[in-house]
């Protein structure tokens, strides 16, 4: 029996043993442009994509295409609606990025709380700050309230970390959890307006969808406490960055930890001028362990469907 043909796009890795054992695998050239994919995609049954935007044009060119797997949890770079209309499965890799992304969110929370950027910058400049002064003191997250927007796998993992620090945890989600799960996680469901007004830290952990676009806008930021911090490790489109900059410059919120931006990699450099912001380069899942795991999960998505006929991690 002839093996299913799979194209791996936008990844520097050129060795996926689990996938190669079950399928005929081609690794797209690193320099390949859209025209290359339009010329070649028609011969493949499956596609694994890194950052390559898989739009309607590419999906239409994939005449034999049966499944597209993102090599990560995000799939906003894939035209899911058009894929669905063509009977093409779209899958992602939620398990692999769950822990490291939650780690990044909590790392940003701790760094903001304990003024790590201020301390490090001062020490690098040879200054030993007087921590007896109130302006040089951070705060403990213990006993503070964390508001989680998006209680999926990452949100739940973040809640478990926060619980060990004795934090109170509120959440808002499209679908409310069961009473048993809320009790097990130690979380309380509230409307978004309540979460924003009551939380000392607001963490965004929801996917990029039309419903979540600019969910944090001028009105949402005005509901937050002036002592509160915003943390975003999900997608940049959830935040109106112009409104956030105004809030940060005006002292209407205490600070922000941003791992994702509306435009990447050409993010708004105005954030670099602020001393109450921590910026990281979309590094939520950037651990060696996670990157190995996500490639295995993406491979499993393809093999499970093309070889075994069982779709897993399906998002459409």
UniProtKB/TrEMBL annotation:
The keyword Oxidoreductase applies. Residues 15-316 form the D-isomer specific 2-hydroxyacid dehydrogenase catalytic domain. Residues 106-284 form the D-isomer specific 2-hydroxyacid dehydrogenase NAD-binding domain. It comes from the Bacteria. It holds the Pfam family 2-Hacid_dh_C. The keyword Oxidoreductase applies. Keywords: Amino-acid biosynthesis, NAD, Oxidoreductase. Belongs to the D-isomer specific 2-hydroxyacid dehydrogenase family. This is Glyoxylate reductase.
